[in-house]
C-alpha cells in the first residue's frame, strides 16, 4: 500500500481554472434547482392535475433524497474517486431532469425529483472536494472559494429569476429540461479538465453500510419531519415521530462510527471547532436566508402584485451583492485576516437586513425598504459562505474531503428544510392570531393582506434572531487564522491508499 501525499503547490495543474469553471457550473445547477421549480409549481400542478395535498412532494421529494443521501454521496466520492462520482452525478442529474420534464402525471414528476436529489447528493460533495483538492495555493484557493461561495449563496435567487422567465415565456417543463444541456456539456468538460483520482480496487476500504443506513436514515427522517411541519404544524404526531426517529438514528450513527475502522463520517472531522462552527453558522444562516426568499416571494407576488418574472428579478440585487462580497471582499481578505473576522460581521450585516424587513407593511416601497434589506443580506452572506466553504475541507486528508464536504452540504440542506418549515409555521400562526383579534373582518381582502404581512414580519424577527445566534456561535467556535503556505492537505495524515 502506498500513501497519498498532500497536493504539491509547486506543480499546480495548468487546467485548474477550467476545472473551477466546470465545478462552478455544476454547483450553480444544484443550488438553483432547489428554487427554480418553486415558481413553476402552480403551472405544473394545474397541468398534471396534482392535488393541493400532494403538490408539496414536488419539493419534498428532492429535499428528502438530496438531504438524506449526502453523507453516503460524500463517502462514495472518497472511496471510488471524486471525478468519477462527479460525472455520474452530472449524467444522472441530466437523466432525472429529462424524466421530470416529460412527466405525464404527478407520480412520475415526484419520482424524477427524487432521482434529481439522489444524483445531486453524489454531485455536491464531489464538487466541493474536487475544488479543495485542485487549489492548494492560499491566494488561488481564496479566489476559487470566493466564486464557489458566491454561487452557493446567490444560486437560489438566480433559480427564482430563471424559473420565472422559463415558466412565463416557455413552459414549466423547461425548468427541468434546462438542466439537461447544462449537465451534459459540464460532464464533457469535466472529462477533459478534472484530474483522474480513481482508487485501485485492491486498496479500497469497505463502505460503511451500517453507518450509511443509520446516518442517511437519520437525515432523511429529520428532513421529512421538518418538511411536513410546514403543513401539519410542529405538534403533529407524524412530525414529532420523524424528528424523534431522526435524532435516535443519528445518535446510533455516532455510536457506530466511534467503533468502526472505516467510518462513513470520521468523527474527528466534526470535532474540529472551525469545521463544526462553520457548519453550524451556515446551517443557521440558511434558515434565515430561506425565510427571506419565502416571505418576499409571497409578499411581492401576493401583496404587491408582481409577476413571477418581476418577483424573480427583484432578488437580483441580493445576488449581485453576494457575488461582489464573496469575490471582491472575502476572497481578498481570507488569506490576511482570521476567518471569524469575516463570518461574524457577515452574519451581523445579514441580521441587520433582516431587522429592516420587520418593518414591512402592505404599502412598503421596494426601493426604500426591500432593496436595502436585500443588499445588506447579500453583502453579509457573501462574507459568510466563502470562508465557511473553505474551512469545510481545510487541513483534511485527501481521502476524507468527500466526507468533510458532505458535512457543510448537510448543514445547508437541513437548515433550508428547517427554515422553510419553521418560519412558515410561525408566519401562519401569527397571521391567524392577528386575524382572530376582535373587530377585524377576516373576509375583507385588505384585512387579509395586512394579516399576511404581519405574519411575515413576525417570522422575520425570528429569522433575525437566528442570524444573531449564528454570529455568536461563529465568534465562539471559529478561531482559524491564515498561515503562510496553508493548503488543503498540508499537515493532514492521509489514509494509506493507492491512486491509479
TrEMBL record:
Domain of life, source organism: Bacteria
Name of the molecule in the record: EmrB/QacA subfamily drug resistance transporter
Keyword tags: Antibiotic resistance, Cell membrane, Membrane, Transmembrane, Transmembrane helix, Transport
Pfam short name (any one): MFS_1
Bilayer-crossing regions: 17-37, 57-74, 86-104, 110-131, 143-165, 171-195, 207-225, 237-256, 277-300, 306-330, 342-360, 456-478
Sequence ranges assigned to domain Major facilitator superfamily (MFS) profile in this UniProt record: 19-482
Localization in the cell: Cell membrane
Topology relative to the membrane: Multi-pass membrane protein
Chief location: membrane
